[in-house]
Automatic annotation (TrEMBL):
Origin superkingdom: Bacteria
Residues annotated as binding ATP: 7-10, 181-182, 187, 192, 217-218
Protein name according to UniProt: Aspartokinase
An annotated GO BP: threonine biosynthetic process
Annotated GO MF terms: aspartate kinase activity; ATP binding
The keyword Amino-acid biosynthesis is assigned to this record: yes
Length: 415
């Protein structure tokens, strides 16, 4: 029989009523003839509660431990949230007449590296799962975790349950991986900002990857990367309705795409400009090397035309990283590795992007975007482009206006 992977997030399994609701969806697919592997997250809020307990146990009042904890024990505690959900889901399915059993990552086995708390998947064994499918038994798998080389539970970090589901679907050769969440699909932009936003029936892997990396919270970047690599079809669906969702697939499955598929944005951006740095080989490395070592993720980079051997270097970064970036750059300057006349920080900017695989074969997208923003009086501070994306930095107070203007300019409310 064909295999279907179904993943339910924390809000979809927040209590027993919601677990029963999710189980009914699983039963529907079982009745349709699928061997089903269900991947579950911890109940909504449970992971944060468990993390809080780890921190409290590691750093009780009056302790001078500084909050340090053993990452292996952290994983042992935090992984329990998904394990509880998998057991409860299995019990509910059994009560509904669906033969099912729970699985933990080490039982499959889902093997990871030893980076406890942020492990990467090395391999997935499928023999045991296939054997149970052949016996008519469906699988309910605790997401977010596997087993490391040290034989200990290792958690996969942010978005780990989505990653588990997509990796399992690829390993099992599943027909599809359905991601159930609290939204009913992928929209042309956030409906809370643009009321005319439209749900997409299909979107290409590359477009979804760009949207995820730009802040769209429907799917995590890591899971979309896996889906793209293994050509695993994803369906984003709502746990709270039976409507068709959005299929994330190869662009060959999309008959003809619009030039632009969506408008993405990120409010939490900042911009740093270093004025009058030396325009010579090695300067860029001297700036961005210390930032990388400090764990600062730099996004957009612009270098001005040189004048008298000096130039200005501008880059964007998450606003929460500004303090860390300042310290790293100041330390590099104190060490004589780099010098500038002035550091200018703007922590009130936002990034707005248009994304679409249709850009590959159509000219004029950037011009159309810039004209739409200009017509609304929105000034552009920084521009970057890729094959299927154009991004700009604007004042944060104009972000919503910019999103609405671009949504209208590219007629995204029209199917």
């Amino acid at each position: 029989m064909p295999i279907l992977v179904m993943k339910f997030g924390g809000t979809s399994v927040a209590d027993l009523d919601r677990i029963r609701n999710a189980a009914r969806k699983v039963k529907r697919e079982v009745d349709a003839g699928y061997d089903v592997a269900v991947v579950v997250s911890a109940m909504s809020g449970k992971t944060n509660e468990l993390v809080g307990w780890v921190r409290e146990a590691s750093n009780p009042p009056g302790s001078d431990s500084g909050g340090l904890y053993d990452a292996r024990e952290y994983d042992a505690v935090v992984a329990s949230g998904e394990q509880v959900t998998s057991g409860l889901m299995s019990l509910v399915l059994q009560e509904m007449g669906v033969p099912a059993r729970s699985w933990q990552g080490w039982q499959i086995p889902l093997r990871t590296n030893n980076a406890h708390g942020a492990a990467r998947i090395d391999s997935i064994g499928t023999e045991a799962l296939h054997q149970k499918f052949s016996e008519g038994l469906h699988a309910v798998i605790a997401g977010f975790q596997g087993i490391g080389p040290d034989g200990r539970i290792a958690t996969l970090g942010r978005g780990g349950s989505d990653t588990t589901a997509v990796a399992l679907a690829a390993a099992l050769g599943a027909e599809r991986c359905d991601i159930y969440t609290d939204v009913d699909g992928v929209y042309t932009t956030d409906p809370r900002i643009e009321k005319r936003a439209r749900k997409l029936d299909r979107i290409a892997y590359e477009e979804m990857l760009e949207l995820a990396s730009l802040g769209a919270k429907v799917l995590m970047t890591r899971s979309v990367e896996l889906a793209l690599r293994y050509k695993t079809r994803l369906m984003v669906r709502s746990s709270f309705s039976d409507d068709e969702g959005t299929l994330v697939c190869d662009e060959d499955e999309i008959m003809e795409s619009k030039i632009v598929s969506g408008v993405a944005f990120s409010r939490d951006e900042a911009k740093i400009t270093l004025l009058a740095v030396a325009d010579r080989p090695g300067v860029a490395a001297a700036i961005f090397g210390p930032l990388a070592e400090a764990g600062v993720v730099v996004d957009m980079i612009v270098q001005n035309i040189s004048e008298e051997g000096r130039t200005d270097m501008t880059f964007s970064l998450p606003v929460d990283d500004v303090s860390r970036a300042r310290k790293a750059l100041d330390a590099a300057a104190a060490a004589g590795e780099i010098a500038w006349r002035e550091m200018v920080v703007d922590d009130a900017v936002a990034k707005v992007s248009v994304v679409g695989i249709g850009m590959r074969s159509h000219a004029g997208v950037a011009q159309r975007m810039f004209r739409a923003l200009a017509s609304e009086g929105v000034n552009i501070k920084v521009i970057t482009t890729s094959e299927i994306k154009v991004s700009v930095l604007v004042d944060r107070k104009y972000m919503e206006l910019a999103v609405q203007a671009l949504h209208a300019a590219f007629e995204l409310d029209v199917a």
